[in-house]
């Protein structure tokens, strides 16, 4: 058994490869970086024609972007939790966040329906499917007990977690995420491979930090909004590349996610809110503004 973790940047979710009697990839990045994903796999010694199975931790665009490319080039099947498989296979672009956040996802279908407690078997590995909703209704984490590996998707990152989208996922999303974290923290884990960021080796501390942050969000829902705002603003800058600042501000002001997020939580003048966020990200060095154009300083 060979396990490889492929860390990506902000736009793409990470991938994990299990190489045994089956070649399995967990999550496939964002579609606009599909060529880069294929090249990264080649650098690790893998050709997409050889994959047998894609397991998606959830259906969001930054985790399923190369699904279509892989299945069109191989005999690979796609596995996903039953809730999100339902929406994917029906072509529901709202529940999958595609239309809500103005994402792109090449069409694919889910072949294998996963449920909480299912076991994935390859080589001598039994991997448990754990339903971990909150960030997404059908989010799953995969637990390889024999190697003490947890593939978490976006339910947990390093001292962070995926955005909480109450408009699509429901007002209970933050409480579901808290319950998911509390469930996962009971596992015996040496390493967590998160959906974004580097591997996590101190699981207990990381779970404690994330649960503390969740409790802060529950006390102060404004933090849910700013958490979403900062991440989606950067995500779209990376998607669009170099973009004229005023054009980008006008684009955001007309995005349904921005309108609803501001209406639900912040109730702030849109121009002021976006301008402040852009200046904040500039101050962090994440973006640069020159000659009226915004560019990102971080990897996709």
Residue fraction in strands: 15-25%
| Computed CA radius of gyration, to the nearest angstrom | 19 Å
Please report the total strand number as a whole number. 14
How many separate structural domains? 2
Name the structural class: alpha/beta
Shape: globular
CATH architecture annotation name of the largest domain:
4-Layer Sandwich
Mean pLDDT: 96
Instruction: Tell me roughly what share of residues is in helical segments.
Output: 25-40%
Can you write the helix and strand succession as a string? EEEHEHHEHEEEEEHHEHHEHHHEE
Low-confidence stretches: none
Described by its quaternary structure, the protein is single chain
Read across the widest sheet, the strand sequence of neighbours is: 1-2-3-4-5-6
